[in-house]
Design goal:
By secondary structure, this protein is mainly alpha-helical. The chain starts with a helix and ends with a helix. The longest helix is centred in the middle third of the chain and has 30 residues. Helix 1 runs parallel beside helix 3 and helix 2 runs antiparallel to helix 3. The protein contains three helices and no strands. It is elongated. It has one domain. 91% of the residues lie in helices and 0% in strands.
Length: 96
C-alpha cells in the first residue's frame, strides 16, 4: 500500500469517527432544552457538510497521481483540522 493510500485510509477512518461523535453529540442534546437541540442540529448539519466536502477532497486525492499528493494532502489536512476545531466548538457550546 502506498503512502497516499495509507493516508487516505487513515483520513477516512477519522471522518467516520467524527460522524459517530456527531451522532453522540446530537443524542446528548436530546435531553436538553429545545434551544440546545436546535443548536446541536445546526452544528451537526454544518459539520456533516464540512465532512462531506472533506470526503470529496479525499476522493480527489485518491484519484490524483503520486506527484500531486503532497500538494493536495495539505488541503485535506487543513480541512480535517478545521473540522476537528469546529466539532470542539460545537461540543463546548452544547456543554453550557
Amino acid at each position: 500500500m502506498s503512502k497516499r493510500d495509507e493516508y487516505i485510509q487513515k483520513a477516512k477512518s477519522e471522518l467516520a469517527a467524527m460522524s459517530a461523535k456527531l451522532d453522540q453529540l446530537e443524542s446528548e442534546a436530546q435531553g436538553k432544552s429545545e434551544q440546545a437541540r436546535a443548536s446541536a442540529k445546526r452544528w451537526a448539519d454544518d459539520l456533516r457538510a464540512k465532512g462531506d466536502e472533506t470526503a470529496k477532497q479525499l476522493e480527489a486525492l485518491r484519484a490524483s497521481g503520486e506527484s500531486a499528493f503532497d500538494q493536495m494532502k495539505t488541503g485535506v489536512q487543513s480541512a480535517m483540522h478545521e473540522l476537528g476545531e469546529a466539532f470542539e466548538r460545537a461540543r463546548n457550546e452544547l456543554k453550557r
